[in-house]
Amino acid sequence: HWCSTNACDLRYETDCLHIEFHQRIRHILFSSFLSTYYICIVPIAFCNTHYIRLDIILLLQYGCILFLSLIMIYTSHYLPLELLTVFHRNGKHLGSWQCLTNNNNSLLIPLWDEKNQLAYQPNSIVKYKQHIYRSSNNCSTVAEPGNMCHTRFSFLFSRPLFLPLILCSLQIILLIIQIIFLFIDQRWFVLLSQMILFIFNTYTIHHTIRDVYLLYLVYCGE
Questions:
Q1: Residue (of 62, 74, 71) closest to 193 by Cα position
Q2: Tens digit of pLDDT for each residue in 49-78?
Q3: Rounded to whole angstroms, how far apart are CA atoms 71 and 123?
């Protein structure tokens, strides 16, 4: 990311980062599903169920916990702190537009110019594709009005702690669910499998909390 004052360059960078983010999300989901398939499903094909009792409910329970745990682990790998910082710096410059329903004096409102290289000031009002938009009231705006990709990107990454706190909350919820399962079913093989996942999830949440703390130290003045 470069802190450019050219609005066209910032929009182009946003489009590239948006594609990169979605590609990494697809990698996370695909890798999590594939790993869950090889860990939970493939071994069943090599076991003789005539001699082994298969607990479907326990298998589904473990498969769901494993899939969610792998999503958290792969997320910490594919969305590291450095990349989230790049996303935030771009999202902060991007800004956002709010569509207005009141179209009074729309003839006096200037049209949004795609070729304009300067950012729009806070609370600027423009007309674009038969709609009236107002820019963010706390920062300049370079996003395209009505572009949902820009709106979502700004919503996710304009605040540096927003996405890391969501990930941290999900990991805490996952740990609580695992603890509940440990108290419900205390058979040794259930405890062993859940404790292995619990150790990995504990490391992941430690990694995420560390990232949140570092982001707070860097951006606490914002």
A1: 62
A2: 677 777 888 888 989 999 999 999 999 999
A3: 39
